[in-house]
Amino acid sequence: MDDKEKQIIKDLCKKFIDRNYSESDVVSFLIMLRRHAKGIRSITELGDFIAHRDKEKGGVKDYLEKTKNVLDNLGQINTTLVIKEVFTFKEFRNGINRILQNNSISKLDDTIINDLMLFSMSIIQETTIRNKESDKLGILKFSISEAKIILLGEFEIENNNRKVKCSVPVLEVNNRYINMNKMDKFDTPISFNKVIKVEAVSGEIKII
């Protein structure tokens, strides 16, 4: 990382710490970090996804494609389906801080990283995921529960000649932003019916 890159990254980190920034700042941050993220899957994949929204889907596409295939063929194939995020908060945090510390920049604490992951989820919401044949696999939806804010991959499967809507978690963070009660005993998330924007203004995170 050259001196100018370090200057820009440090300025962005100060904005993040002060909680006074926009989604476009997070886009710039992740795209700059991905150049220095060799071997750090969470940052390379997310940075590529953001930079090439219509082309690069990486692990997100693979995860939705595999999940949809298994659910489409329930009872017909012998396989174990693992439902979990494409990468975890811990992987995202460790990836960012490893790059920062490798370049003599102070690491960010968990609260700031939680904010950045929330912003990242907002940035890639509503992306349509397609397979190699350009057929639609699903769409990424911003959703919320009492405990978590979740980026869901929503898609349809065939079940007894009927189309059934399914959703699986793609990314998730702790909900430190909106107070709400559980919808049911499972704390099932609710998808927003509009495009969400996240802002950090005067020390406060706003979901609008």
What is the number of helical segments per DSSP (H or I, 4+ residues)? 6
**Unreliably modeled segments:** none
Distance between the termini: 35 Å
Radius of gyration: 18 Å
Number of domains: 1
Sketch the topology as an H/E string, one letter per element: HHHHHHEEEEEEE
For the structure shown, list the relevant keywords.
single chain, 208 residues, alpha+beta, five-stranded antiparallel beta sheet, two-stranded antiparallel ribbon, 6 helices, 23% strand
Provide a compact summary of the structure:
The chain is α+β, with helices and mostly antiparallel strands.
Plain-language structure description:
With 208 residues, the chain is an alpha+beta fold. It has one domain (3-207). 40% of the residues lie in helices and 23% in strands. The protein is built from six helices and seven strands. The strands form two sheets. Strands 1, 2, 3, 4 and 5 form a five-stranded antiparallel β-sheet that branches. Helix 2 (23-34) packs across helix 3 and helix 5 (89-102) packs across helix 6 (110-124). The longest helix is centred in the N-terminal third of the chain and has 16 residues, at 3-18. The mean pLDDT is 90.
